[in-house]
UniProtKB/TrEMBL annotation:
Catalytic activity: Endohydrolysis of (1->4)-alpha-D-glucosidic linkages in polysaccharides containing three or more (1->4)-alpha-linked D-glucose units
Stated family: Belongs to the glycosyl hydrolase 13 family.
CDD domains the UniProt entry points to: AmyAc_bac1_AmyA
Protein name, per record: Alpha-amylase
Entry's EC annotation: 3.2.1.1
Span of domain Glycosyl hydrolase family 13 catalytic: 59-409
This protein's record includes keyword Calcium: yes
Cofactor: Ca(2+)
Residue stretches making up the Alpha-amylase C-terminal domain: 419-496
Pfam families xrefs: Alpha-amylase, CBM26
Length: 679
């Protein structure tokens, strides 16, 4: 879907958490050895206390894209151990249950249904219940992790029949009053502020956010989130909600939405709030920063992506946030879920390149970096990876370079920055923070040392690999080794804290996550930095395993998925968690000449179309498809001209909004000679 400071310190349970406040850094213990059956507390080189910034502005945010509440809760130790200060959930509101509740990110289900509100109450079928959300927030508090909730006030689902009566009543008593009058028009001209803030965007009905009763209802939702433990909010499509001086409909209301939701929510002064204000045309970003507190810096993300992929990290490109004279109250990113999904970033940029960009934006002084965690085992060949809503994303969020630069950022709070191209080579950039630390990102060939630096004289170890030494003397940085291509070097001593390596669990890279119906799959399990890795298959008792062992996976009778839960602890008792889901898959082929029939309802038009697609095509661009042949009154036929692998078919009468189609969601399996009727 395209388009705060947290100063208040909640009381932490002494039995579960120890906190030591030092300067602007908070050290919190997520899990002690005694809680995990071990009294060994003798190590002087490692610690389970993780440093987090004292407020979200100074730290980093992990976007847990489509992770459910229980997965986030179980992954909290991993999140803390990776140096994040906050996490951001996907929208937690009641939402459209599309495609019969299918739970694929894309296919039999869609990630974007949680961006289609049906009510503003906590809990939905994709992420979990209100109680599960609260339990997740409670777990986050134990680890000192703040929780940001992605919220949507601008629109509802286009399936308006699913909108709750409570929301309709809050919107004035009818769908007509819930939405803007201009909602009848599609937004095409983003330079027109009245259109931008009152027209229907992307087919999503535009809520009349100026209506006082709606604002009251929405504030109740925000307060419930805060009561459960939320520490801030991200406002989706924020630039489509009017500012105080924007033009508006003549309906007796005023553009005071932002004033109310920012100031009248409980604990308002201590919440971190930012709006998704995608830059482009007349977006008024400085005014949104003033109204909301923070906004996104989408143009900067685009510039960083281009700099990394083109190996051109010039000082000018890296340093300019592209916000003009706007205050630097911004959330930065290398990519967002919109870039990844809608802009094709998944095949334009590798995960390794994303991590290089992350090192650049996170080493900097200003902005609050947001790490979008891509789907589990996705790649430039496979956008969706395991393709499952609810599970955690790819392990890239806890990559050693990501961890190192996250903790670097926390240690550098308050230090000025200096950006240089070492050896005047723009394929690499060094971001220095005072004389205390530096991050070097090299995108191309091996980089020779011997260049100038502001770092204080001394010996430094690269905190990414933990072994390569660098020496600074008389303003020169040298090492016996070159800086490798496509690598990150993190150098600092003051504020560095050594942590025990986290345990690692997972499945082999060649794992196939779809199982043919009635068959089994042999899955190779992996683990590292642990002596107690375990797996639980389909909720059964946990079983110990060693790296490289295999397990046979089959989908239980009456279900369409099999689930592997993998857990382990490192020598300090810090847990890691991963949930791997295998889904049944129907595979079949049809030959050219296959013919199917459809009997249309009397209410449909006389032109009937067949829309055919498969997993490779996803949704083709020829809706409504191919016109069918009329065989007799009410009966039509379609003949396949080509061979197809596992095609699906949707019948429709060409209506652009898709209201006259069968089925309403996922297409039907093709059977030669079959006559399809609406059941």
């Amino acid at each position: 879907m395209k388009d705060g400071d947290y100063l208040f310190k909640r009381i932490l349970s002494g039995l579960l958490v120890s906190a030591m406040l030092t300067g602007s850094v908070v050290y919190l213990t997520g899990c002690s050895n005694s809680q995990n059956g071990s009294d060994d507390n003798t190590s002087t080189n490692t610690s389970t206390e993780y440093a987090h910034a004292d407020k979200i502005d100074n730290g980093t945010i992990l976007q847990c894209f489509s992770w459910d509440f229980n997965t986030i809760k179980e992954s909290m130790a991993d999140i803390a151990a990776s140096g994040y200060t906050a996490l951001q959930t996907s929208p937690i509101n009641a939402c459209l249950e599309g495609e019969n509740g299918g739970m694929q990110l894309y296919g039999d289900g869609k990630w974007y249904y949680h961006y289609q509100p049906t009510d503003f109450k906590i809990g939905n079928y994709q992420l979990g219940t209100r109680d599960e959300f609260k339990a997740m927030c409670d777990e986050a508090e134990k680890y000192g992790i703040k929780v940001i909730v992605d919220v949507i006030a601008n629109h509802t689902t286009p399936t308006t029949s699913a909108v709750s009566q409570d929301l309709i009543d809050a919107g004035g008593g009818s769908l007509d009053t819930l939405y803007h009058k201009n909602n009848a028009y599609d937004l095409n001209d983003f330079s027109n502020r009245l259109a931008c803030t009152t027209y229907k965007m992307g087919g999503l009905p535009d809520i009349n956010t100026e209506r006082t009763s709606f604002q009251d209802y929405f504030i109740e939702y925000l307060n419930d989130c805060v009561a459960c433990g939320a520490d801030g909010f991200r406002y989706d499509t924020a630039k489509h909600i009017g500012l105080p001086d924007d033009p508006k409909e003549d309906d007796g209301f005023t553009n005071n939405f932002w004033q109310r939701v920012i100031t009248e929510v409980n604990n308002a002064d201590n919440l971190f709030i930012y709006g998704e204000v995608l830059q482009g045309n007349n977006e008024r970003i400085a005014d949104y920063i003033e109204a909301i507190g923070h906004t996104t810096a989408s143009t900067y993300g685009s510039k960083i992506r281009g700099a990394i992929t083109n190996n051109t990290l010039s000082k000018g490109t890296v340093s300019d946030y592209w916000l003009g004279d706007a205050p630097l109250n911004m959330v930065t990113w290398v990519e967002s879920h919109d870039n990844y999904i809608n802009d094709g970033n998944w095949y334009n940029m590798t995960k390794e390149q994303v991590i290089l960009g992350w090192a650049v934006i996170t080493a900097r002084k200003d902005g609050t970096p947001l790490f979008f965690d891509r789907p589990y085992y996705s790649s430039v060949e496979n956008e969706w990876g395991m393709n499952r809503i609810g599970t955690e994303g790819d392990d890239m969020y806890k990559d050693k370079s990501v961890k190192a630069v996250n903790f670097f950022r926390t240690a550098m709070i308050g230090e000025d920055e200096n950006i240089v191209n070492p050896n005047s080579d723009s394929t690499a950039v060094m971001i220095e923070r005072g004389t205390k630390g530096a991050v070097i990102v090299n995108t191309k060939d091996a980089l020779k040392t011997g260049f100038e630096t502001n770092l204080a004289d001394g010996t430094y170890v690269n905190r990414v690999d933990g072994k390569t030494e660098y020496t600074v003397k008389n303003g020169k940085l040298t090492s016996d080794a070159d800086i490798p291509a496509n690598s990150v070097v993190v150098l600092y001593n003051d504020g560095y804290k050594e942590y025990e390596a986290a345990a690692e669990v997972g499945v082999a890279e060649d794992t196939v996550f779809n199982i043919q119906s009635g068959r089994t799959a042999t899955v190779t399990l992996t683990c590292a930095n642990t002596d107690n890795a375990e797996y639980a298959l389909n909720g059964a008792a946990a079983v110990s395993y060693k790296n490289g062992e295999t397990v046979t996976v089959s989908v239980p009778s009456g279900s369409d998925i099999a689930t592997l839960e993998l857990t382990a602890k490192n020598s300090k008792g810090v847990k890691t968690y991963e949930r791997v889901v295998f889904a049944t898959e129907v595979k079949y082929s049809i030959s050219s000449g296959t013919k199917v029939y459809f009997e249309k309802p009397d209410s449909w038009g006389d032109q009937i179309f067949a829309y055919v697609y498969n997993d490779e095509l996803y949704e083709n661009e020829t809706w409504p498809g191919i016109e069918m042949t009329k065989e007799s009154d009410g009966k039509y036929s379609y003949t396949f001209e080509d061979d197809w692998e596992t095609p699906y078919i949707i019948f429709n009468d060409g209506d652009e909004d898709g209201s006259q189609q069968y089925p309403a969601d996922k297409g039907l399996i093709v059977e030669d000679g079959k006559t399809y009727t609406i059941e």
